[in-house]
Structures are given as structure tokens and as C-alpha cells.
Design brief:
single chain; 163 residues; elongated
Amino acid sequence: MNMYKKILDGFIKIVCVLLIVSVLGIVALILNELVIRNVLNKSFRGMTELAGLLFLWMAFLGITVLYDKEELISIDMIYSRTQGKVRTVFWFVRHAVTLGLGIVMIVSFCGLYPFVVTEYYSSMPNFSKMWQFLPLAVSGGFFVLKAVYNIIEKSKQLRGDGK
């Protein structure tokens, strides 16, 4: 399980770098668009579409990092106010729901793939809209892997096999 954890941690480091790049990209595109719009009195649809794409990546990569750090707002309001076995039950419910959500995200991407792979942006005719939906599958895959890891580790801990 240590290797599994190292792989997940390595993935999160890559996601953090991509998250920073997407935020910087959005800022650069918006500033560029503002300058061009105010100086040339023109607007380029491609910049707007690319900023929207980067925003989607930023949002999905962000929830991936938040789930890894246990900082997503889910049933924490209830979970944090409970003790003992009730708290443990809520912990398992939270991670089981996240596992289910991850599966739904992957299945959704697989269902959308045949349609979006053949659609292209109007301003970027060689750039498939599949890239807009890819972070859905990436985050979903991480949710599944991390939830399985968390459930296995918690089960081992409760049995006394863990840390």
C-alpha cells in the first residue's frame, strides 16, 4: 500500500503544477483579452474559449487536490459533531459516496466521449472538445483510487492492522 500511496501523492504533485499553470493561463488570457479589447477594440473568441477550457481544468483539478487533503465540504458539518461509531459510519459513508461519484464521473466521460471527440471549437478547428471533458474522467479516476485507498486503510486501522 505504500507504493500505492506514493503513486497517488505523485499524481497530486503533478495536479498541483497543472493547477498553477491553468490559473496563470487564465490570468494571462484575461489580461491579454482586456488589453486587445481596449487597444484594438476587438475580441477574439479563441481566447474566451481557451479561458473557459482552462477554468474547467482548474475546477476539476482543484476538487481533486481538495479531496486528497480532506478539505472538501461534504457531510463534514455532521461528521465533525459526532463521536465514536457514528463518526466512523459517517466517515465510511462519505468515502463510499465519493467512490460512487468517481465511478459516475468516469462513466459520464465514457458516455460523452463518442460525441465530444468529433466536435471542435469554432475558433480552434483542430482542437477537440474532448479536452473540455477530460478533467471529469481524471478527477473521477482519482476519486475512485483515493476512496478505495482510504477505505482499505481505515478498515485496517479499525481491525488493528494499521498504523
